[in-house]
């Protein structure tokens, strides 16, 4: 059994920051669960264009607010505490921070391996390691 506390991750190599996001990677590929599990903070007013071509991601909001634009349909969905979105079609999307910082719990399949940040398309590169 592993016990992971987010306060022990802040300021370590498992905390990764990019424009408009901070990700605390509580479980990574090397933790052997078959998915990675992150707490992500999206500051109020942020705008992120994302497209996880190589991953599926489920995102559950536990605090704050924002919106997500599904670029395939043109629909925008409100995100508040209790909302989950699942990018089951590798959906191209724009994530908008709202009036308060959003606290999101995110799971990636396949798992993120470490300190991935988005490429110019908003993707994390695929894991090409053998193990
Ligand atoms: C919601 C989202 O995809 N934000 C970008 C960061 C990502 N969730 C991560 O934790 O690596």
Question: How would you characterize the overall build of this protein?
Answer:
This protein has 131 residues and is mostly beta strands. It has a single domain, classed as Jelly Rolls (Sandwich). It is built from no helices and ten strands. Strands 1-2-3-10-5-8 form a six-stranded antiparallel β-sheet, with no helix packed on it. Strands 4-9-6-7 form a four-stranded antiparallel β-sheet, with no helix packed on it. The structure holds (2~{S})-4-acetamido-2-azanyl-butanoic acid. This is L-ectoine synthase. Keywords: Lyase.
Set down the secondary structure blueprint:
Blueprint: E1 15-18, E2 21-27, E3 36-42, E4 47-50, E5 56-63, E6 65-70, E7 76-80, E8 84-86, E9 93-97, E10 102-109
Antiparallel strand pairs: 1-2, 2-3, 3-10, 4-9, 5-8, 5-10, 6-7, 6-9
Which key phrases capture this entry?
single chain, 131 residues, mainly beta, Jelly Rolls, 6-stranded antiparallel beta sheet, 4-stranded antiparallel beta sheet, globular, binds (2~{S})-4-acetamido-2-azanyl-butanoic acid
């Amino acid at each position: 059994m592993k016990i992971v506390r987010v306060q022990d991750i802040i300021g370590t190599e498992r905390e990764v920051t990019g424009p408009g996001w901070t990700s605390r990677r509580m479980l990574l590929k090397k933790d052997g669960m078959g998915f990675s599990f992150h707490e992500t903070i999206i500051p109020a007013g942020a705008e992120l264009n994302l497209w996880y071509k190589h991953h599926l991601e489920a995102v559950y909001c536990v605090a704050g607010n924002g919106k997500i634009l599904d670029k395939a349909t043109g629909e925008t969905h409100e995100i508040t505490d209790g909302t989950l979105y699942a990018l089951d079609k590798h959906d191209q999307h724009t994530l908008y921070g709202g009036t308060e910082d959003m606290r999101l719990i995110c799971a990636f399949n396949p798992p993120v391996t470490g300190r991935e940040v988005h490429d110019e398309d908003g993707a994390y590169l695929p894991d090409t390691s053998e193990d």
